[in-house]
Specification:
The chain has a single domain, classed as Cytochrome Bc1 Complex, Chain D, domain 2. It has four helices and no strands. The longest helix has 13 residues. The protein is mainly α and 76 residues long.
């Protein structure tokens, strides 16, 4: 899945991307984000259009954002 690969590459240094292991800092695990009813696909898409936290170099295409959101949604 393209979203999981992107998540591992861009997000895995802070977030727990898969369903096991530990995150590098206090960033929420993707599985927790997927289960949070306030974190909607639209909200995630909007959030990912801008760098956040320590990700000053984060610049994703709309397709990459869609792939990441689909991956996170698949963790529900």
């Amino acid at each position: 899945m393209a979203g999981k690969d992107l998540a591992t590459q861009w997000c895995g240094s802070c977030h727990l991307v898969g369903d096991s292991g530990t995150a590098a800092d206090s960033a929420p695990p993707f599985a927790a984000l997927a289960k949070d009813p306030t974190v909607t696909p639209d909200r995630m898409s909007t959030f990912l259009t801008e760098p956040h936290g320590g990700m000053t170099g984060l610049s994703l295409s709309q397709q990459e954002i869609d792939d990441l959101v689909a991956y996170i949604e698949s963790l529900k």
